[in-house]
Design goal:
74 residues, alpha+beta, YefM-like fold, 3-stranded mixed beta sheet, 3 helices, 3 strands
Length: 74
C-alpha cells in the first residue's frame, strides 16, 4: 500500500494511476489522514447471447400437456 499527499498526487497522478491499475493500493492523504483510495473501475461484461447454442434440444412435445393434467381444466 502506497500513501501520497495531495500535492504529490497531483504532481505524479499518471504514475499513481499506473500503480492502481497494476493492483497496488494507492491512498491519497491530507495532513497524514487518508482521503481517497484509487481503484480500477470494474468493467461490465457484455452479455454473451447464444453461448449455449447446440448444448441442448427442446423435445417435440415440450408444449403439450400430460393427459392427467387436462382433466383439471375440463
Amino acid at each position: 500500500m502506497s500513501e501520497f499527499g495531495v500535492h504529490e498526487a497531483k504532481t505524479h497522478f499518471s504514475k499513481l494511476l499506473e500503480k492502481a491499475l497494476a493492483g497496488e493500493d494507492v491512498i491519497i492523504t491530507r495532513s497524514g489522514e487518508p482521503l481517497v483510495k484509487l481503484v480500477p473501475v470494474q468493467r461490465k461484461r457484455k452479455p454473451n447471447f447464444g453461448f449455449a447454442a447446440g448444448t441442448f434440444t427442446i423435445p417435440d412435445d415440450f408444449d403439450e400437456w400430460p393427459e392427467e393434467f387436462l382433466d383439471y381444466f375440463r
